[in-house]
Amino acid sequence: MKRIVAAIFATALSCGAAAADTFRVGSQVVSTGDSEGRLREVAGKPDRETPIEARGGGLQGYRLEYFQKGKSVQVEIVNGRVRSITQIDS
């Protein structure tokens, strides 16, 4: 049992992705629920922009990706608002 718990704990520590509620750019912060305009004002033009498709095939939103100092920050925009922020360490 201890080995299983240790294995799960080690796996959790080795994961490179982490969900976050905020994204810091310099001295400013973007939070989930902020508008897309606020995100672009603070973070600027994204390094990559990918459409998110709805189950029915229509456009649901966008995934904007910013590369910063050895990490990637993915921000999902749905209905003009920041739905989620995910940081991936390289």
How would you describe the overall organization of this protein?
- By secondary structure, the protein is an alpha+beta fold.
- Helices cover 23% and strands 50% of the residues.
- The strands form 2 sheets. Strands 1-7-6-5-4 form a 5-stranded antiparallel β-sheet, with helices on one face.
- A hairpin with a 2-residue loop joins strand 2 and strand 3.
- The N and C termini lie far apart (32 Å).
Describe the secondary structure blueprint for this structure.
Elements lengths: L1 H13 L2 E4 L1 E4 L2 E4 L4 H8 L4 E6 L5 E10 L2 E8 L2 E9 L1
Antiparallel strand pairs: 1-7, 2-3, 4-5, 5-6, 6-7
Structure keywords:
single chain, 90 residues, alpha+beta, five-stranded antiparallel beta sheet, two-stranded antiparallel sheet, 2 helices, 23% helix, globular
**What percent of the residues sit in helical stretches (DSSP H or I)?**
10-25%
Q: Alpha-carbon distance between the termini?
A: 32 Å
Main sheet record: 5 strands, antiparallel
> What shape does the CA trace take?
globular
